[in-house]
Amino acid sequence: MVTIWYGLLGLFFAAYLVLGGYDYGSGLLLARGGTDRRVVLTAVGPFFLGNEVWLVAAAGILFGAFPMLEGELLAGLYPAVALALAGVLTVTAAVQLRSRSLAGRPAWDRAIIGGSALAVLGWGAVLGGLLQGVPLHADGHVEGVGHVVTPFAAACAVTLLTLAAVHGAAFLALRLPGSGHAQTGRRLVPWALAAVAATTVVGLLSARVRDAVQRPAAAVPLLCLLVAALVVAGGALARGRPGLGFAATSVALAVPVALVGAATWPYALVSTADPGASLAVVDAAASGPTLRLLTWLAVPLVPVLLSFQVMSWWVFRGRIDGRAPVYW
C-alpha cells in the first residue's frame, strides 16, 4: 500500500506539472509580445484554477500519507519550495487582477511572466534537489539551506523552464488559430534539448548526484524517453499537428517526476551527510491504519477529480474564436 500511495503522490505531482505547466508556459510566452495577451489568457482561462487543484491534491497526499517526508522535504528544500509557491501565488493573483485597471495591466502582465518563471524554476530546483540529496542527519535534522544552491539544481530549474515554454507553445498552438505558436514551439525545442543535455552532463560530473542516484539503470530509459518526446514534439509542431505535439510535451513534463522517483528508489530522500540517515519510502509513510483510511477517502474522490478534468477538457475542446468568453 505504501508503494501505491507513493506512486499516487508522483502521479498527482506529475499531473500538476503537465496541466499547470501549460499555464506557466503560456505565461512565459506573454513576454514575446506581438500578440493579444488577453487572447492567450482566454485560451488558458477555462482550465487555469482547475489545474492548480492537482497541486493541492498532491500536497494533501504528502501531508497525509507521508508526514515524515513532508517535514524533511520542506526543511531540506525550503528555498526552492518557497520560490515555487511564491511564483504560483503571484501568477494566480496577477491573472485575476490584470483587468481591474487598464493603466496597471502592463504591470500585472509582467507579474504573470515573472511569476510563471519563478514557479517553474522553483519546481525544477525541487526536483533537482531531490535527485542530488540533502544533508539529512540521523536525528532528522537537515543542515543549512545552502546545499540547494548547486549547478545541478540550477540546471534542473532552467531545464524545466524550457520544457514549460515548449509545452505552453504547444498548448496555444492547439487552442489558437494560426501557426505562430507552433513555430515558436518548434524553435524552442532545440533549446529544451540543449538544456536536458547540459543538465545530464552536470549531473554526471556531480559526485552528489552520482551518490544519490540508486538506480541509474532506471533513470537512463526515462531520460531517453524525455529526449524522444521533445523530438516528436518538434516534428509534430513543424508538420502542423499540435495535438500530437501537445501530447509529446505532456510526456516531457511528466518524465522528470518519474525519473526522480525511479532513480532514488527505495528512498524518498537521500542523505548526503550520512547514507544511513537516508529516509526510505516505507519509513516516510504514515501508519497502516492511516493509509487504509486515506484509501477509503481516495476511492470516491480520485474519480471525481479525474471526471472534472475530463469534463472541462471536453466542454472547452477545440480552438477558441471571437465568441469565446473573455476571462481576464
TrEMBL record:
The chain crosses the membrane at residues 6-31, 43-69, 75-95, 107-131, 151-176, 188-206, 218-237, 244-268, 293-316. Its main location: membrane. It is an enzyme of class 1 (oxidoreductase). GO terms for molecular function: oxidoreductase activity. It comes from the Bacteria. InterPro entries: Cyt-d_oxidase_su2 (IPR003317). Pfam families: Cyt_bd_oxida_II (PF02322). It is found in: Cell membrane. Keywords: Cell membrane, Membrane, Oxidoreductase, Transmembrane, Transmembrane helix. It comes from Phytohabitans maris. Belongs to the cytochrome ubiquinol oxidase subunit 2 family. It is a multi-pass membrane protein. This is Cytochrome d ubiquinol oxidase subunit II. Its EC number is 1.10.3.-.
